Amino acid sequence: MREFLDLARQRGWAAEVYWVTRDRISVQFRLGQPVAILEEVADFCAVRVIREGRLGVACGTRPATELVTAAGEAARHGGEAGFGFAPPGPPEEFTPPDRGLTSLAAGDLIPLGERIVREISSAHPQAALTVGLGRTLETLRIANTEGLEREAELGRSQVLFGAPFPGAGSGLYKSAASPGVPDYPEGLVEEFCQWYGWGLEVARPPEGRLPVLLAPEAAFLLTMPLAAGLSGEALWQRTSPLLGKEGERVLAEALTIWDDPLRPGDPYSRPFDDEGIPCRKRPLLEAGVLKGYLFDLRTAALTGRAPTGNGFKRALFGGGPWASPVPWPGRLVVEPGSVPWRELLDTLDRGLLLYGGMGFHSSNYLQGHFSVQGLGFYVEQGKVVGRLSGTMVAGDIYRDLSGSLQLSAERREDLGVAAPFIRVPALQVTG
Amino acid sequence: MLGRVKPLLAAWGDGYADVRWEENRRVRIAFRGEHLTECKTYLTTGGHVRVFSGGGKGLLSVSRPEELPGALRRAAAAARALGAARSHAISLAPAPALRGEFPLRPSQDPRSVPLSDKIHLLAGYNSLALSIPGIVTTQSYYEEWSSTRTFLSSQGAEVSYELLVVNLGVRAIARKGAVIQSTHIAFGGSEEFGRLLGREEELRERVEMAVRLLSAAPAQAGTFPAILDPDEAGLFIHEAFGHLSEADGIQYNPSFRERLTLGTEISSSALSVADDPTLPSLPGSYTVDDEGVQGLRTQLIREGVLSGRLHSRETAAEFSEPVSGNMRAVDAFYTPVVRMSNIFIEPGPHPFQELLAAVEDGYYLVGAKGGQTSGDQFTFGAQWGWRIRRGRLAELVRDINMSGELFHTLRDIQMVANDLRFSERGGCGKGGIGPMQLNPKSGKGAPHILIGRVTIGGAG
After folding, report:
1. Among A319, A46, A43, A359, which residue's Cα sits nearest to residue B438?
2. Residue A116: Cβ within 10 Å count
3. Do B407 and B432 form a contact (C-beta atoms < 8 A)?
4. Which of B62, B201, B321, B433 to pair with B355, CA 20 to 30 A apart?
5. Which residues in chain A have their CB less than 8 angstroms from residue B61's CB?
């Protein structure tokens, strides 16, 4: 890293180096059989150069000279940076991943996969099961010519399993992540077996506005439009419906949502963002009232705000070390309610239980709108009738999730968000 | 670079092994509004190793060439460990051990165009979009993706080949009060830089549509007949049917595999579909796939009958069907998966006006806006739509998408027009056995088609 920065300094450029060393393993099962072991051992580097106020970027796996030169050349023609790289600061306290993860080999995951296959197959022998088990270790280093040097060890294990419903392509999938060696996910397997049974028959809900219970896996229908509206990018471009609404109630009073990348024991925790700004726990919504936006270095500078530690190399599709940092939540956490989720289901009459939605990205979600093909179940008088097939579910979070919501006491850790079950009074159901 | 690997592969006695080594270069330039926000170069090298041994399969990616010999050994050990836990061995269909070099020779190679010229070109289109009254901002990009690959196998294959695609796109965002609408247009989709030039009038027309949409009403939810324009019909055939023609997509789904037996009458007889990487200068064109097999045209549906499938050597062996040369990886950090090349609906006999005249009350969906499928279920957005009343285009509508079930929809394709057009913007996301791969080298095309009944999802 020093070599990169020295090269930039010699040329009179400001520079930032992002370096990730990744070691990943995964074992994949299909139809009850292990079908492949995948491994990756790789280094990726991204160099940002500010040259005479202009920004250029190069990234890849090539030697330092080549990347710094390419970034400098890009900066020669690049746009006005409008921001400076992160200042140095004291190291953050952060718990490194469980040591057991480091020594975990792909072969060690095979027995766990076999157990999941065995347990589900005994309940649903017809299920065409997919099981994936993996472990990711990352060493993330960020340094810049301002004198900042940060390093963090990140790691997690992941378990995913599921199956298409017989005769259909749509299916039910469950996943779990852990900061340590994965355990057998007993509760999740039991839930899968029950829900899969619910989905063996197709049900046709009536068309119109129906109450909907969003499972934690479907909470993205709320959090993705919200995060898009909170983004410094949308504020700067003046396309956010949340522009100028700090301190105003914008969603239901039942909703308190944190950005908390430092959450202890969270497999997705991070001590700093992808620009080296320390992450911190802060409220985005408190009882439905807008409390904070998301800024990276660039959008903070453009809007005259302070960066919030939300510059992440993420995108709806295609994020990764090669992506440019954009304002993105570090770890969204929705405060739970007090009602057991089964009670929310039991009291649902002529409504839907949704665990996903297809086609979200083609919605006008920045404005809070979503229109998806619902993945889930039709429920009558608290009893699941069958799975949805070809049912469109549409809503607007700023209209449909601003009134009376009920949140479950249970909360689940999903990749994008830790959320409870959320009962929405009504969404538009078609088909 | 591969000097230490060749003798290892030549003497390989532990099943089958192959190595793909890549040198990749990408350029991305982006504007947001009037600001040039990205000017980026990607320079990556990397290798991917596959070993089929002891009945199992081990796959490993590395970023340094000196790690390749160790990677081969580690992948072999993983393959054997996996094979020991399997009840039957994974095998590969035979394929000729291809040898040779397959470079690209575009008439105007984007790799030799100065960066400043690319920025200037994009800035011109971006300024034009911003100059249209009602447009509040833009998201404009230039993307160039090239890869030089060498593939070696323990069966003697030794192939070098190039991949190259360049795209320029503009998304224009219009706003009136709380209503925000956008339209998008992309040029290019091949190795030819010249395709990006002189497209101002098409851009202007597309941008003006974003402003018109501000005054349009949202689509009315319900079930209607629908005409899809070539862009939307191409997206439909790619997403809803094409992924099910990829053998690894149904390999582990017994009920789908049974429903998709070759020879099955799968659609109305109006429909014929093919996949063809040999068509020149389209987003999904290539000569050799990423397991050293020559890319071939495959007839997927002929007049309603399922007639072919896309394969890797592994799936070809499992299905006892011919290899097709569709095994592809985005880069060395991904294992190849079975992917479409240029999938398209073959043209039918009807002028577009005949399709329109056949609709009493329905919608005309224009411009693909992303989609998603889950097996037989699909959902696609459109950039805009028109209500059709009594065989004529009536009012413009916004926020329109459609969904349905594949097999019903295929049988409900009532008319196919004679105006086949390939989209210039390629791209496809697919996970499969590994993480999601976003492949820019994926093409799609179609004429207008009329579907008897689809679910239109309108405003909530």
Report:
1. A319
2. 23
3. no
4. B201
5. 39-42
With a CB cutoff of 8 Å and minimum separation 6, the contacts of B5 are: B19, B21, B68, B69, B72, B152
**Token pair 């009179």 in the structure block, residue:** A12
Give backbone dihedrals phi and psi of B314, rounded to 5 degrees, phi first: -70, -45
Query: Could you give the 3-state DSSP secondary structure of residue A73?
Result: helix
Q: Give the burial class of B223: count Cβ atoms within 10 A of its Cβ; 0-12 exposed, 13-18 middle, 19 or more buried.
A: middle
**Taking CB atoms and an 8 Å limit, are B45 and A43 in contact across chains?**
no
Does ipTM exceed 0.90?
A: no
Cβ contacts from A onto B, under 8 A = 278
Out of A56, A80, A359, name the one closest to residue B372 (CB): A359
Token pair of A331 as six digits: 């770890």
A window 165-184, beta carbon within 8 A of B: 166-171
- Residue among A38, A58, A130 minimizing CB distance to B59: A38
B374 and A CB contact within 8 Å: yes
What is the rounded CA–CA span in Å between residue A392 and residue B381?
A: 12
Residue B281: count of CB within 10 angstroms of its CB: 16
Count of CB atoms situated within 10 Å of the CB of B117: 12
Residues A357, A427: Cα–Cα separation, whole Å: 13
Ordered mean pLDDT values, 10 residues apiece, chain A (431 residues): 91 96 95 93 94 95 87 94 95 83 91 97 95 96 96 95 85 93 96 98 95 96 96 92 96 97 91 96 98 97 96 85 92 96 96 92 85 94 94 94 95 86 96 75
Angular region, B61: left φ>0, alpha ψ -120 to 50, beta rest = beta
Q: Decide if A319 touches B, using CB distance below 8 A.
A: no
**Which residues on A lie below 8 Å from B379 (Cβ)?**
358-359, 362, 372-373, 392
Are β-strands B449-457 and B428-430 bridged in parallel, bridged antiparallel, or unpaired? unpaired
Which helix or strand (DSSP H or E) is residue B182 part of? strand B179-190
